[in-house]
Structure formats: C-alpha cells, structure tokens
Design brief:
heterodimer, A: about 475 residues, Uridine Diphospho-n-acetylenolpyruvylglucosamine Reductase, domain 2, Uridine Diphospho-n-acetylenolpyruvylglucosamine Reductase, domain 3, 4 domains, seven-stranded antiparallel sheet, B: about 350 residues, alpha/beta, Rossmann fold, 3 domains, five-stranded mixed sheet, 19 helices
Amino acid sequence: MQLAKDNYMYQMVRCELVDAVGREFVNSGDADGLGHSIDYYWIPEMWHDRGGAPQRPDFVVHPGSSEEVAKVLKIANQYKIPVTPWGGGSGSQGGALPVYGGIILDMKRMNKVIEIDERTLSVTCETGINAQHLEWAVEKAGYSTMHFPASIACATIGGFLAHRGTGVLSTKYGKIEDMVMSLEVVTPTGEIIHTLPVPRHASGPDLTMLFLGSEGTLGVMTKVTLKIHPIPESRKFHAFLFPDMHTAMTAGAGLMHSRLQPCAIRLYDGPETARLIKRVLGIDRVGAYLVFGFDGPEKIVDLQMERACEICRAAGPKEDLGTESGEAWWRNRYKFFYPPYMFHMPQAFGTLDTVATFSKIEDVYWAMKKTVEENFPEANFIGHFSHWYDWGCMLYARFIFEKAPEDPAEAAALYNRVWDLAIRAAIGAGGVINAHHGVGLRLGRLMQERYGPAMTVLEGVKKQLDPNNIMNPGKLGFKGV
Amino acid sequence: MQINQFNEVISACRFCFMCRHLSAVGLVSCRESDTPRGRALIADRIRMHPEELGNPDFVDTIYRSDLSGANRFHCDGYHDGSGYDEVGLQLALRRDIVEAGFAPESVKAIAAEFQSSENWSIEGSGEVLYFIDPCTAARPDTTAAVAKVLNRAGVPFATIRGGCIGKALAVLGFASEAETAMRKFAAAVNATGIKTLLVSSPAAADALRNDFKTAGVELKPEVRFTAGYFVELAEKGKLRFSTRNFAASYLASDYLKNYLRCDCAEKLLALLGIENRQFGTNPEESFTAGEGALVLARLHPELAKQLAARIAARAEPGIPLITASAYTADLLAAAGADVSTLDEVAAEALC
C-alpha cells in the first residue's frame, strides 16, 4: 500500500502502530524522516548534497520488545506496507534506506544487555544496542567482545549481524558470524523464533546462518548471544615497509600459513601507503606498509611476534618500521574514518571490498585496479588487505573521484558504472560481491550474476518466509514492491 | 544566516556517524534527528532551502539538544583538539530561528522571563562576591554549604543574585539580549570593587570566563569555581577537611570538562579522600541530564526526566552520586538518585 498523509488510511495505520508501541514511539516528523532518508551510502548523500530529497519513510517506529516488533510486522502484513529495519544507519550499501517509504523499524530502543554468562563466556543482548555501548558493558565485567570495527561507535549489533560485519581483530576472533552463538528472530509474518543455543551441532541445517547477512529481508533479528573473551594480558604490534605489494602479500600469507595467531594483519598498497598512512600516521615512505599484531599472555605474544618478524624479514622488507609504527597504527585505527581524513563530498568514493583465496587475491586486486584506471582515468584506486584467514584475505579497495558531476543523474550513473565494472572484474578474477559491508541497494543487481541458478534458492526462502514481500523490498537482489 | 559561519562543521558532520554513541538525547529518544549528524543534516537542508528554517519539527529538534559538548570532545580527541564545533552550529541555528521570528512560544516565554529579572541584589560585603544563579538558588543546601565553607575559612563574602547573566538567553538563541544582560551584570559586579567572583554553577563559570570575553564585556574580578577555590583555600591552610573514605561517582560537568577543560572537581574529591568511581561503563558520555542546555528541564521537562532516569538507573547501589551543578543534582534527586553537589560534599567534610 502506498501511504499518503492526506489519506485517512495513513491515520488508520498510524493509530494501529501507536497501539502497538505507544504514541511516543511512532514518529512521522520531518526531522527524523530526514535522518532516516540518508545512511552512509554515497548515492543518497549526493542526492541530498545536490538539494534533492531522498525518499523518506512514512513512519519511524521504535519497538521496545520482540513482541512489539511482531505486532508491527503483523500490521505491515495486514496492509502490505514495506518495513525497513534500521540500526545505526551507518551501513554503506543503502541497506537501511526506506526506498519505498513505509515503516522504518528503528531498533535502537531495544538496547539492553540481558545477561553476561561468565561460565560460558557469552553475552546476550538486544540487537539495537550500540556496539560501543555493548563493548563498554562487557569490558566493565572484565571481558571483551573483540569486535572492533571502524563503525563501532555508530553501528548497532543488529547492523553487524544483518551485513556480516567485521572488526579489526577478525583475524584471530572472527567475523561477526563467527562470534554468534544463537539468535532470536521475528519472522516477517510476526512469529518469534529462536535458533539452536549452540553454533556447532548436527541437528539439521544452521538456521542462525540463514539469517546472518539477510539484511532485514528475511525477518528482524531481535536478540543475540555472542561469544566474549578475557581481556588479554598483552597486545603488541609491529610494522614493516615492503618494496611492493606482492612482496608484502607473500609475507602476510606467510604469517597465516605459519598458523601463528595474529589478531590483526593489514597491508596497504603503494598508493594508500603514500596517501593515508602518510596523512594519518605521518609515515612518509614509498612502498607497501604491513602491520600486524598479537594478543594474549605476554610470553606467548612475544614468542609469536618474534617468529612473525622472522617471516617478514625473510620476505625481503625495505624497512623494519618497528614496534612504535605498529602501535601508532593501532592507536589511530579509527582516525582514518573521521572527517576530514575520511573521504567526503565533493569527492565521489566507494569501498569495493571483496575477498578471495591467496591464490586469487592479487589477481582480483589487479583486475579491479586495471578496470577502474582504464575506464575512469580521473579516478584514484587505492586498497588495503585487512581481514586475513587461513586460506586468503579481504581486499578493501576504494575508488575516489575528486569531484563527481554536479548533475545528480549523471553522478549516479558514473558511480554505478564504476561499481558494475569493478565488481564484475572482481568476480571474474575469483572474488565475491562483498566481504563485510553487505549487498543492500548498491549491489543487489549483481546478485543474480554471482549466484546464477542458486539465486532461486534464496528467492524461494524469501518467498516462503515473507509471502507479502514486506521486509526491506528491493534489497539484496530481491524484488521490489 | 549565522549558520553560514559553520559551513565546515555542517560539511563534516552531516554524513558522519562517529560520535552518535555519545548523543545523550539521542540515546533516550532513539531518534536519528537527535544526534549531531541529524542536526547537521537539518542545518544543511536549511542552508540549501532557507524557507525550511521555520519548519516546526526542525525547530523543535534544535531546541531538544542537550548541548553537552561530549560529541565535540570526542571528535577533538581524534583531531588534536581541533574537532568540529557542533554545539556552536546548534547555537547558530537557534540564533537564526530567533532572528527569523520562528522561536516557539515556550522559548520566547522563558527568554522574556530572564530579560525581565535583572534586578541584581547584593548583600553583605567582603573579599569574595558569591554569585547565586537561579539554578543554584533553587537548591538551598548548596548555597548554605558554600556559606559554611567560606565562613569556616574565615573568608568574608557578599552575595549577588537576582537574574540572568546572559547564559540562558544565549543558549536560547537571544544573542543581543544575552549581551545586554552580560553588560548589566558586569556593571553591577564591577561597581562592588570586589576582586574575586565565586560561582557554584559550571554554566555560570563558562559564561563569565568565556562568553563575556567573546562578547567583549569586561568583568574586573577573577572568576573562580567553588571546587577549585576550596582546594586553594585548603592548600593555603585556611581549610581542613576530614578524610571521607568512601566511594562515590562524580558525574563530570559538561561545562567544566568539555568547555572549560577544568579538573578542579576531581582535585577536590581527591583532597576529600573520596574514591571517585567511574560512573556507568565509560568516561565519555554526558551524565548531566542536559546541563549544557541549561533550561532543558523547563523547555522539555519529559525529555529531561528521561535523561535523569537513564542516569539514575545506571547508578550502582550504595555508591552515591556527586554533581557539579545544582541543576543536575535536582533532576537526579527527583529521579530517585542519592546525589549531592560538590559544594555540599565539601561542607560535610569540614573538620
């Protein structure tokens, strides 16, 4: 149903929503509507910047419990009104945008820490909690979630679950999907369900994994139990400068192949070393900057660090930048994302993150770089490799135009063309659509290409769970309204 | 428009989410618009479409802010002290709203009250002039505590009370009226010839030290905040405090921490032997229930109550709270918290 404020049905729906969650928690004002019309996706930012008004929701609803979420979804089903879950709004893929209006289900009121289980080492919380607030609460109890993404201060835990987010210590502690024990989910038709209480079992397919990364299209994750960890006795970093990215990649892969347990590895290509490492850390060098760290009992950290440095030295570094350079990177890890260090208007920019095996990842990098530079010579291409696995790593590539066309339609066309070509190049070289930001509105059109016939499986699941297609339509490659 | 002086702030904040976890009002309302990003988007929209300045929902949002400074303080931390002045942007927006005649009736009523109450009353005489602002005057325990401490130290003092020194008017967006109030107050104070002007209100301390200077209003006495002054009296041997030996949580004042960058409260607590236990889970949030906005409890009483309730709910059983401002103490007491002001704690610790 398309709602118009001058139509009595608008008021009918409003009354039902107020009945479900309370008058104070149903908002249709211009101020909050504006805030919810723009997330961290460049297209709505640009649209606003050019004086336009991105699509606003008809209602912003703040449920206070899973039961209230269920009530809202039942109302939405009754009238076939689109519902878009919203956490912190800091997603970069447009996943939380209310592209068809309707209801924004702002989850931030569901922000309670329910239990810290010190025997299991887990925390159960509502998913609308701000990730930094959860980390602070867990730290106060003497533990850590070990989930430290750049968006920790802005995103909710639900946002990370919905987009399979990753923190800076993922190399040791995993992505968010590795941290989840179990979920509570409100299905699109309003049933409250729970996945199994443990993440490893042989009790059928894993329902938890079905919902992780579903970006609000298959239901609303309302509670989660996450693993937590003791705060390590020691955490140390070290940095090297390599003559080129390939040599540095050899060293990084060597660290993973050695089966040491680094908590973080980050490798910056030459252009990003020259641009951002210089600007943020003040290290003015030509080459590829590689930093890594270990945490845990200090003796074990020192042993691992010693062996890791041997591996790096054997790979042929240009310079051993030492501990201080590594520690400076850790201290400033979030600084890259604050203005003015972060890219911003009038620049047009995007993070083309992808992931591949060690045998493919450099091919992916060069394929994307070649595609961007050949097709868009006015763009800069920079990248770093920031989440490492036994088998490969993630590429955080970025393109930057210093200035996009003033005309919003031209700007959007240019922007989308970069994404189409670059992601297709990544897929062609062995990468995937995305590594940890999700698909959302930005990349949905590429899902069919990447999944092929397997997309019908996802579409079947969607249709079964959400027969009226109310949940975040038009995202993740699923059909719109 | 005044906001045009803040174009850099608007550009930096309008798409930035990095401090939203510290938006006290946003944390209780859960509204996107109650964050620095949300307010910067509004300012940006108005910059591009000035006719939207009078949008009642925009105006209401701008007057809901707690103006805490915690967000800027956080941003400063990543910029070596040169972050983005998002509170300055909000004050500029409020000035634009007032100048364009869009101020809500509730705002105008409070401003009118403050403009009509500038009949300064000075009582007593001495080497110190103690300014009793309206918020502190409403908490007699605090004013009595200050009098007790000064008497014990043998410091003769006079008091001045009776009106607005311009801070509340400035916060509401009435800039010229605020300057007029400043000048009247300065004239009354300067005429006494007293060398030390003592205040218990962090907002007053900020006004007298920063706002007066910015406005070019000369204030002859040195402005001292009570906590810092008491520490100095003790160091000079004029005061003796008994060691208190208990734990409490001091809720850092927005004005002292974020605007004046003053740690006199922490020094006083250390002097009194009070273990200052960190409140809540972190030292970054503003736990003042809107101290920065000064009159938030009158403009949006329900919102101020929600802010106070959130703080009271986080208090640890058996650990009393200490605030710098009487404003915050009164709100928290109403929310059921065990709370005292710094001045009251100091008076209780006198030997």
